[in-house]
Amino acid sequence: MDLGTLVGVGLVTVAVFLSAILDGVAIGHLMLPAPLVLIFVGGFGASAGGLLMSEYATALKDLKKAFTAKAPDGSELVDVIVKMADRARREGLLALEDMAKEIEDPLLKEGIQMTVDGTDTAEIEELLHMRIDAKKDQDKIGVAFYEAMGGYAPTIGVVGAVLGLIHALGNLDDVAALGEMIASAFVATLWGVFIANGVWLPLSAKLKRLSQLEIKNMEMIIEGVLAVAAGTSPRVVEQKLRSSLPASAGKGKDAKAA
């Protein structure tokens, strides 16, 4: 689990509620059911309206991904690719068939299997890039959904405020309760602005960043597969692939000399 998003969302939540307490706002007034239903259910409905029904599951699954997914570590994949490059140089591409069966990464597995089957490198590159394009399209679903949630929430909060004011103005004869009704009217606005900027937009940004890192990893895999197919020196393969890794990535084991 990646704690970055949990820490960030947790801090902004604590900041909002702590500020409310310091200002003397009763927490119970912030937990009124009507504004919460309007913001969460209404916001989800408005955002879901921009999706296909078949995309709902992907958007909801990405909520868990935003909180739990770790950035992909390409250093281990580099080690695997370098080992395959070394073996291919010594024993030929057919010797990689057994290694391909043990590969867990689906893109690398597919690329190496096509290489072993003698598929033309141009066709391998084209097909693997099509996998990347499909990945980009799928990742856009969750990013766009939570970005939309962040955009709709404040506006729906204003709707809640208007509803609250309508209720308050309809009860002007109850002067004693008028102040509390007006204050309650703005709870939905508070939740709309808070949930948009403190939760939904950060989640969208996290999903976008994860997608960028995963796509970069996939591009590195394609470069590695093509290098193996071309019989490139393991040392050169390692240098090229590690140069594309983030500075924080592990260095792995040194490749064997060609």
Please describe the biggest sheet, giving its number of strands, its sense, and whether it closes into a barrel: none
Count of helical regions: 11
Computed CA radius of gyration, to the nearest angstrom: 26 Å
Give the overall average pLDDT: 89
Share of residues in helices: over 70%
Global structural class: mainly alpha
Note the gap between the termini.
38 Å
Q: How many E-type strands?
A: 0
* H/E element sequence: HHHHHHHHHHH
Strand portion: under 5%
Spans of 5+ residues with little confidence (pLDDT < 50)?
250-258
Basic shape: elongated
Task: Write a short abstract of this structure.
This protein has 258 residues and is an all-alpha fold. It has helices at residues 3-22, 27-30, 33-48, 56-68, 74-91, 97-102, 106-116, 121-169, 175-185, 187-229, 234-242. The model is unreliable at 250-258 (pLDDT under 50).
